[in-house]
């Protein structure tokens, strides 16, 4: 199986945690003689790392499985990730699928592929999610100038709309000592930026008497890394101490992504979220007080069961009032085995679409306001590549920049004069 001519293709769906896990798995396959190719070309083995946050994600996974089969009807197809853990029987019935691996088994892909030589039947290898207690560190390597480092997995929360605890199990993390060692290895490999990822990252260390604050305080001292970025953190776990530390740090960038989900306290209660709109507002205000140039991203769900027009209006008004930079808008998707799926008063599709479009427009407005205030200012930009003769990258506070004139090498951080806002990016000039 593991000969130099065996071509293997990976496709990753969903969150950055998935991307970090795919990177670890693919690296092992390469070390064992496999040749990695694009998922869009003929391969001997296709590996699909799935997401299952929404119904659309499930549909996309099935589409990608069919695509692989068309490219090579004789290829082996392995499906891993959240969808594989939640709906293994459903996936195994899709023509062409040979292997379905649950949350605990996906990191043993190599050995499971070898076992396929013994028969041609679809195999499901999946442990009960409650039996999963180990933490598998993972990070992206060699793909971009920034590396995504998974520091935490699973979730102990029970949000009524979410399948993640069912797909990934209880919250768990590595020790600070091991996490710092991995981060140093990433730094030594040349990455200028490390993005800390996880399922509920603020819960880091809760299983071993450590804390996320302790982790970032030590990571801040690592040599060779110029930037650390926190991917997403729950507002109730984003403490004043974490905010204060990031404000004084030279390496933790001015950028937070904080899920809101709803601006209505009654909907938040129904969702079983662990904060109120008042607490959320206080977090945003404190960030802007200490870090005025901070970029703040927000997750919002529209069309949650029971969300009436006045609930949506509360959300819209709250978002309008907050000094935030952009929104990630999700339409509620009914998920099997969740509390929300049993609730009455499901919101019509047309209403979801209207509310989604409304908040997407608001997101564009917020982004424009945020970008506009940095015209004719100088920010450090991490160059990630080039397109159409222009260097491209992101500022420390997450402004996308296209740089005119002088080209700069990839994976370098350069001072850039931000000139004009083009909507999805800003024009800039290296000074």
Describe this structure in words.
Helix content is 33%, strand content 25%. The chain is an alpha/beta fold and 431 residues long. It folds into three domains: 7-127, Methylthiotransferase, N-terminal domain (Rossmann fold); 138-371, pyruvate-formate lyase- activating enzyme (Alpha-Beta Horseshoe); 377-430, Nucleic acid-binding proteins (OB fold (Dihydrolipoamide Acetyltransferase, E2P)), CATH 2.40.50.140. The strands form five sheets. A six-stranded parallel beta sheet has the order 2-1-3-4-5-6, with helices on both faces. The longest helix has 24 residues, at 349-372. The chain is globular, with a radius of gyration of 22 Å. The model has no long low-confidence stretch (mean pLDDT 93).
- Strand percentage lies at 15-25%
* Silhouette: globular
Q: Report how far apart the termini are.
A: 52 Å
> Any guess at the CATH architecture of the largest domain?
Alpha-Beta Horseshoe
Counting DSSP E segments of at least 2 residues, the number of strands comes to 20
* Tally of structural domains: 3
- Biggest β-sheet strands, sense, barrel: 6 strands, parallel
Structural class: alpha/beta
Q: What is the helix fraction of residues, given as a range? A: 25-40%
CATH class of the largest domain: Alpha Beta
**Radius of gyration from CA coordinates:** 22 Å
Low-confidence stretches: none
Number of helices: 13
CATH topology of the largest domain: pyruvate-formate lyase- activating enzyme
Mean pLDDT: 93
Task: For the largest sheet, list the strands in their spatial order.
Answer: 2-1-3-4-5-6
Say which CATH homologous superfamily of the largest domain is assigned. tm_1862 like domain
């Amino acid at each position: 199986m593991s000969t130099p001519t065996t071509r293997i293709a990976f496709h990753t769906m969903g969150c950055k945690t998935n991307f970090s896990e795919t990177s670890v798995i693919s690296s092992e396959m390469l070390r064992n003689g496999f040749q990695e190719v694009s998922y869009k070309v003929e391969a001997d083995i296709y590996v699909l790392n799935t997401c299952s946050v929404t119904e659309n994600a499930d549909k996309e996974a099935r589409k990608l499985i069919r695509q692989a089969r068309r490219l090579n009807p004789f290829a082996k197809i392995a499906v891993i990730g959240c969808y594989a853990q939640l709906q293994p029987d459903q996936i195994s019935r899709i023509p062409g699928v040979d292997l379905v691996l649950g949350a605990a088994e996906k990191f043993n892909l190599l050995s499971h592929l070898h076992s396929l030589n013994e028969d041609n039947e679809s195999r499901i290898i999946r442990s009960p999610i409650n039996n999963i207690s180990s933490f598998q560190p993972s990070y992206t390597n060699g793909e971009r100038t920034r590396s995504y480092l998974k520091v935490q997995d699973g979730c102990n929360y029970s949000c009524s709309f979410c399948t993640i605890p069912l797909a990934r199990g209880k919250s768990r993390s590595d020790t600070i000592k091991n996490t710092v060692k991995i981060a140093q290895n990433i730094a030594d490999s040349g990455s200028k930026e490390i993005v800390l990822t996880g399922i509920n990252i603020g819960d880091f260390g809760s299983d071993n008497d450590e804390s996320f604050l302790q982790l970032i305080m030590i990571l801040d001292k690592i040599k060779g890394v110029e930037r650390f970025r926190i991917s997403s953190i729950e507002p109730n776990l984003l403490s004043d101490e974490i905010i204060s530390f990031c404000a004084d740090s030279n390496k933790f960038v001015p950028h937070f992504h904080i899920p809101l989900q709803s601006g209505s306290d009654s909907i938040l209660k129904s969702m079983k979220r662990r904060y109120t709109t008042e607490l959320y507002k206080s977090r945003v205000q404190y960030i802007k007080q200490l870090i005025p140039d901070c970029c703040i991203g927000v997750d919002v769900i529209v069309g949650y069961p029971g969300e009436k027009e006045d609930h949506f209006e509360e959300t819209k008004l709250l978002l309008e009032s907050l000094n935030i930079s952009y929104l990630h808008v999700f339409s509620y998707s009914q998920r099997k085995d969740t509390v929300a799926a049993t609730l009455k008063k499901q919101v019509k599709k047309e209403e979801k679409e209207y509310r989604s479009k409304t908040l997407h427009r608001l997101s564009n407005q917020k982004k424009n306001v945020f970008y506009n205030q940095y015209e004719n200012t100088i920010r450090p930009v991490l160059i990630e590549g080039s397109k159409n003769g222009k260097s491209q990258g992101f500022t420390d506070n997450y402004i996308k920049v296209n740089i005119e004139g002088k080209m700069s090498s990839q994976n370098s951080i350069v001072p850039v004069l931000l000139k004009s806002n083009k909507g999805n990016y800003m024009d800039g000039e290296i000074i």
